[in-house]
Amino acid sequence: MSESKGRVSEPAADAETFLAATDTIAALRPDLSLLEAGILAGLHLGLAADSRSFARIFGVEHALVLRAVEGLTGATLLTVTARDGRTQRTRYAASAAGSAMLTALAA
């Protein structure tokens, strides 16, 4: 655990944890691409809740992340909560179905 400005916080998820979560999601939902599974894993682990952050953190083209977010929205696993018209940054959250699947990961 690290401490900054008087607050104690959990360390960020490591690459192994992220990859394991991505693999588990992909196994639960083989209809998803690995990028889509990775977006859900990143959301679940608190790594990214918007398209630009995910693209920057993981070195993926923003357009590909946007396409994957749209796929997850169509699969009813994500809900778009905000979209910047200029940058196309899309903020998202797990839908009820997505939350149920992500809760199963923690079990």
Can you tell me about this structure?
Helix content is 53%, strand content 16%. With 107 residues, the chain is α+β, with helices and mostly antiparallel strands. The chain has a single domain, classed as Winged helix-like DNA-binding domain superfamily/Winged helix DNA-binding domain (Arc Repressor Mutant, subunit A, Orthogonal Bundle). A hairpin with a 6-residue loop joins β3 and β4. The longest helix has 14 residues. The N terminus is likely disordered.
State mean pLDDT (0 to 100 scale): 89
What structural category arises from helix and sheet content? alpha+beta
Can you tell me the CATH class? Mainly Alpha
User: How much is the radius of gyration in Å?
Assistant: 14 Å
Number of domains: 1
Q: Give the CATH superfamily.
A: Winged helix-like DNA-binding domain superfamily/Winged helix DNA-binding domain
Under the CATH scheme, the architecture is Orthogonal Bundle
| Largest sheet geometry | 2 strands, antiparallel
Spatial order of the strands forming the largest sheet: 1-2
How many helices?
5
- H-E string: EEHHHHEEH
